[in-house]
């Protein structure tokens, strides 16, 4: 997700917390890990029900401000302690839920697990001793309890929860993408035809199908929460549509006021920029909610319309009873014949069947060298096709015919006669080519 998308998510989460009564006024704060040394946090001194994406502040893991027009939350040290000590945590939410805060004020932890939802989602929730809010003391008190927990009660203060992501729709989006990927791989595997052995192809298909089943089961586990989220997102969409209409009307009103001369040019530029930014922010939030609803509805449809299990095969009729076997002594004697010898595989014929040309002739030199599989180079002339009649496995060289003129010149050069047999030899020879006798130079 981009920084802008994360900021929109954080603003939506702040409004949800305020709408449910989990925070009030300027209470509560959020932090989301953007990267190895980047964190986006809520601003200080801003009413969370009115916070927008542009109000978020980016800091590093040491608390130094990188971007933003506001100061970071006063509980920045608390968030950074968690993110620095827990690399598995991607998001931190600090709120003041009335019941949980009441337990924290009363000094009561949640070691007694009474609800199965609490056991599955939060596990043990310890009570952290009191530390002054907004000071490093609170982080010091929390550190001994960081390992092995995803939620804490802060004595006389509130509650803190952590997770891998800020919004569960990111998990659903990942699962849906994995489902599409495995389905595409299986379809491509079924439609391809190559020389891969059948057992290898079957093993790969079983692996993809097993992954697909695991993803589908995980998606089904999110189905109920997805249905609840759809209702919530639809309500949020209605509220955002109302805000969009108000912001658009506000923009039209400001333009009308400017046209009659209410704003000076220097003042109008800032007013127009603020009103337009508000409208753009609402529309971006609306687009994000629409995308979430689409993904959640896709998940719900996937679970509701899952294919019915294949009906079990009807039991076949019982085979007719076999007649009783005759006694051994009643069987006629049949002379035994030696088993037939297995047919010998002609490896040469097999190699020829793999390498021969389509016409049935012996493999050409071009095919045997693999030249037909080499790409054509633009600068090379096109290769001419060789007629099948000219193809041969072992081309026979043309016979060598002696040149008569060359033979006559060689005879004229033989000027040295052998004293033993009278044969004429070249003057450069030491021994006679006919009898082997030693030649005397003239």
Question: Main traits of this protein?
Answer:
442 residues; alpha+beta; L-fuculose-1-phosphate Aldolase; two-stranded antiparallel ribbon; 10 strands; 9% strand; elongated
**The CATH class of the domain at 3-167:** Alpha Beta
Strand order of the largest sheet: 4-3-2-1-5-8-7-6
Going by CATH, the homologous superfamily of the domain at 3-167 would be Class II aldolase/adducin N-terminal domain
Q: Rg to the nearest angstrom?
A: 44 Å
Which fold name is given in CATH as the topology of the domain at 3-167? L-fuculose-1-phosphate Aldolase
Annotated CATH architecture of the domain at 3-167 = 3-Layer(aba) Sandwich
Order of helices and strands: HEEEEHEHHEHEEHHHHHHHEE
Sheet bearing the most strands, described?
A: 8 strands, mixed
User: What fraction strand?
Assistant: 5-15%
User: Terminal Cα separation, in Å?
Assistant: 104 Å
SSE topology sketch:
Blueprint: H1 3-19, E1 29-35, E2 38-41, E3 57-59, E4 65-67, H2 76-85, E5 91-95, H3 98-105, H4 116-121, E6 127-128, H5 136-142, E7 151-154, E8 158-163, H6 169-191, H7 198-221, H8 223-259, H9 265-304, H10 347-355, H11 365-368, H12 404-413, E9 416-417, E10 424-425
Parallel strand pairs: 6-7
Antiparallel strand pairs: 1-2, 1-5, 2-3, 3-4, 5-8, 7-8, 9-10
Helix pairs in contact: 1-9, 2-5, 6-7, 6-9, 8-9
Describe this entry's structure for a reader:
The structure is a single chain. The chain is elongated and about 135 Å long. Among the domains are: 3-167, L-fuculose-1-phosphate Aldolase (3-Layer(aba) Sandwich); 170-304. With 442 residues, the chain is of the alpha+beta class. The protein starts with a helix and ends in a 17-residue tail after the last strand. The strands form 2 sheets. It has an 8-stranded mixed β-sheet, with helices on both faces. It has a two-stranded antiparallel ribbon with strand order 9-10. The chain has helices at 3-19, 76-85, 98-105, 116-121, 136-142, 169-191, 198-221, 223-259, 265-304, 347-355, 365-368, 404-413, and strands at 29-35, 38-41, 57-59, 65-67, 91-95, 127-128, 151-154, 158-163, 416-417, 424-425. The protein contains 12 helices and 10 strands.
């Amino acid at each position: 997700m981009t920084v802008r998308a994360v900021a929109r998510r954080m603003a939506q989460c702040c409004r949800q917390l305020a709408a449910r009564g989990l925070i009030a006024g300027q209470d509560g704060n959020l932090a989301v890990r953007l990267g190895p040394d980047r964190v986006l946090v809520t601003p200080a001194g801003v009413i969370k029900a009115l916070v927008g994406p542009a109000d978020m502040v980016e800091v590093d893991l040491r608390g130094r401000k990188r971007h933003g027009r506001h100061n970071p939350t006063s509980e920045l040290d608390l968030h950074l302690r968690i993110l620095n000590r827990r690399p598995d945590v991607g998001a931190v939410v600090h709120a003041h839920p009335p019941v949980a805060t009441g337990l924290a004020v009363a000094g009561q932890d949640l070691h007694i697990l009474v609800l199965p939802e609490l056991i599955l989602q939060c596990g043990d929730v310890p009570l952290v001793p009191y530390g002054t809010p907004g000071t490093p003391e609170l982080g010091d008190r929390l550190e001994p309890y960081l390992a092995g927990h995803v939620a804490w009660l802060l004595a006389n203060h509130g509650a803190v929860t952590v997770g891998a992501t800020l919004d569960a729709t990111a998990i659903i989006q990942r699962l849906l993408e994995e489902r599409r990927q495995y389905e595409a791989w299986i379809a491509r595997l079924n439609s391809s035809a190559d020389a891969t052995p059948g057992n290898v192809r079957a093993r790969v298909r079983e692996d993809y199908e097993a992954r697909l089943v695991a993803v589908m089961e995980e998606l089904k586990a999110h189905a109920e929460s997805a249905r609840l989220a759809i209702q919530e997102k639809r309500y949020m969409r209605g509220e955002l549509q109302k805000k969009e209409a108000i912001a658009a009307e506000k923009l039209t009103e400001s333009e009308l006021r400017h046209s009659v001369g209410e704003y000076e040019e220097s003042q109008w530029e800032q007013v127009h920029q603020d009103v337009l930014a508000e409208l753009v922010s609402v529309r971006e939030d609306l687009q994000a909610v629409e995308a979430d609803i689409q993904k959640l509805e896709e998940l719900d449809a996937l679970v509701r319309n899952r294919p019915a299990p294949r009906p079990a095969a009807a039991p076949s009729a019982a085979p007719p009873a076999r007649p009783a076997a005759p006694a051994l002594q009643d069987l006629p004697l049949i002379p035994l014949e030696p088993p037939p010898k297995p047919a010998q595989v002609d490896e040469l014929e097999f190699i020829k069947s793999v390498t021969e040309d389509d016409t049935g002739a012996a493999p050409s030199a071009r095919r045997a060298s693999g030249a037909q599989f080499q790409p054509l180079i633009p600068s090379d002339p096109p290769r001419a096709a060789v007629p099948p009649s000219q193809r041969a496995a072992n081309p026979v060289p043309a016979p060598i015919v002696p040149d008569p003129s060359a033979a006559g010149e060689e005879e004229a050069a033989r000027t040295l006669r052998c004293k033993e047999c009278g044969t004429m030899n070249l003057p450069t020879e030491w021994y006679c080519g006919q009898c082997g006798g030693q030649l005397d130079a003239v």
